[in-house]
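[job 4417] fold queue: 2 targets
>>> target A
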Amino acid sequence: MSAAVDVLAVMDAAARGLWVEGEPVNPYAADLISARAAVAELIEAADDLVTHAIGCEILLKVHQTETVAKAKAALARVKGGAK
């Protein structure tokens, strides 16, 4: 496994260099902001999934289904919508 990294902090630092006085200086500046939001959503969904999977011996089927659906949607978003 690779070393731990604060992905959101790295993306924030990279984004700072793509804007000058509130204007993008790189055509991918807005895409980086969208990508950061997708990664943040994925991190939250994965964290919720792990917390519920490890923290509970018995999950209510509805809650488990919602948690898995949230994680799947976040993963699909990070993959560009591919399933």
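>>> target B
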Amino acid sequence: MLGDSTEFSASGYAVDNLLVPDLNLTFMLPWQSRIDLNWAIDNAGGDQTVANFSTQPFDWSTSSLSLSQTRQSDNQLSSFTSSGTSYGVNQEFSLPVQLGDLQFNWSRDQQHDQSYGIQYMVSLYNNHGLDIELNAGITRQEQHDNQQDNDDMNLTNSDYTNRSIGLTLSYNFDYNQHDMLQFNTSNNSGSSHYQGQDWRASWQHNFDDSPISSVNTSYQHYASSNSDSLDSNIQFQGQMLQGNLDPTHYFSDADGQSQNSVNGSLSGSLVTTTQGSTLTHHEMGHSDAGLFIHLDAPKGSSLQLHAGNEQQLIYPGNNFIALSAYQSYPVYVTDNPDSPINVKFDAHQLSRKITLYPGNVIPMTIHAWQYAEVYGELYYHNKPLPNVQINSQMGHTFSNQTGLFMLAIHKNQPQLTASLAGGKQCQVILPKQRLKGQHAAYWLGQLECE
């Protein structure tokens, strides 16, 4: 993190004798604009530099410019397989909800190869768990190959236009979207490179309260290469780490060859503030900004944290909630109805609004205590105390004509105070052994106020 508007990150990977470090730098600018720079180099003479400028001056318009320069590597395992320079422009318009989205793109490289196209997407139906989306597009590709023929340099053109139109159907089987079935098809024409009907069918199941968060399986047919693939994606995450596992089976009907592969990832982050440290995972699409919350509460309890549209359970100890940067969030805490232990907290003090920037971690401490409802009859000198105010650390109430009352108390400090005539007060210290267990309410019988 370099200041409030610049973000730096570094990563890398190694395969056999190939080593590739990767550096990223992001500059946040006014008018919802940003510059992203990426530089990667391997130990075999290859490297790539990518620069991208994007801006969103209006909610309905997004524009971007990109430049990429690559130098070929001497290692066959490297992703830098050729040298060249390319640049491109992309413009996207979000039309009114009923009209969909429109996107234009254009790119060109130093060999004067270029492509340009237009894509249109619109939702035709979205109700009762069923969503139908139409997508259509036209892409023009112009390629120029320099070939040596009889000692003369000839320019060979390979131009084509591809047209596609398709439908995507998605169905959620329940409101919480635990199971979703999706089918999408696309018909390609106008080019010998991409002809025929491509289609894909997939099923996804989301899990609750499980280390495995989702499983997605799909089957896809590619008409242009007359091939099929069966893919699976298993997403898993815990409070500290997240990752995925992706097994794939590929089969070509043209030559009868098949291929199997498995890849995956595991990631986590160490977040440190003046209040402590915790190992956590970052949500997809989130930056390294967020909330570091220390919950001082009885073991086994939990609370629900709300930050804008984000909701997450927090537990006793240190919690990190990753949130997107350059946004403001109203933050508040509510009870978790599924918590086995009832706790109380100062909801007013915990309600606040925050604004996050890349790398900005805001610490918070939440104190919560276990409480219980108690029922009893209040006596003074062996006589009922009718119609008096009774106070605890969590509130107050009034006894009825026979001294009967009901009041919430702090289980670790179970003390009651009654206001008597003439400004006098008397106290009741409740024995903790009578409040054992995880009950929501206790009958205490006759209590003598001293």
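[job 4417] complete. Note on B: Residues 270-369 form a domain with the Immunoglobulin-like fold (CATH 2.60.40.2610).
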